[in-house]
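Sorry, any thoughts here?
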Amino acid sequence: MSHRPQLDHVVLAVNDLAAAADDFRALGFTVTPGGEHRGRSSHNALIVFDDGAYLELKAWRAPAPDEAWWRTLDAHGDGLVDCALWPASVPAALADAHARGLHTLRGPVPGRRARPDGADVRWETARHDTPDVPFLCADLTPRALRVPEGAARQHANAATGVACVQMATHDLAQTARRHQALLGTGLSWQWAGRDGDMAGLRYRLGGADFELFGPLALADQADIAIQLIAIDASPHSAFDAARARLIGHGEGPFACRLRAAEGTPARVLDPARTHGARLVLGQARACSRYF
């Protein structure tokens, strides 16, 4: 893999893991049981794609007030709570981010899961103090133990990957600087539109786009210190969804577009089945075209 981190997975917190797995299977996804997190009350299931990224469905068998994702689930119900990037090394990526001034990224923190087949899966993470920045996650055991290969990546609905993640933030310029500090120089920032006091910025990381939406004062545009390239603007619905996320849940991911086999028309997946996640499956010219 390249030195720069790539999208690893997107986390969807749910109250009932079995029900969520059944609903995603009904949408045409192959859902793989993940197992039990050691030392915690959580368990998960995975929807893994050909591009190596995946959706994590995560639930808790008992309250976990020390865990931010559980607190969000408890306060707001099912929905997207976070996303992870996969670096070559968490300690190295953490040191680089600290050197660029991102001292609010903390780790490494070990993680461990017992798969249903008894395999022991281990990884480590680094997490930001606020959910407007993805966390880092890298494997200590072979990646294929954590991210299944083969038939687990084949889906009846033709899904092949995660094309875009949309995130809401209370301060777009500050969040853009944090992403730049996390990932280093060379990101190609693009406009994703403006609507009232809200603006959107987009950058590409490997095969996935990240779109950030939040308030952006005119004075802050130059302060980002990145060349902004004008491209297709996001529709008003994307800004409305970002506002709703900030009001209802606070900062963090609020929507994803999933890549599908060529010729698959884009469609919004049934929100009654996606457990609070705004998901589009299929081809679209721009990430937010259908949000």
Remarks:
- The radius of gyration is 18 Å.
- Residues 80 and 195 are 23 Å apart (CA to CA).
- The chain has two domains: 6-153, 159-281.
- The longest strand covers residues 105-114.
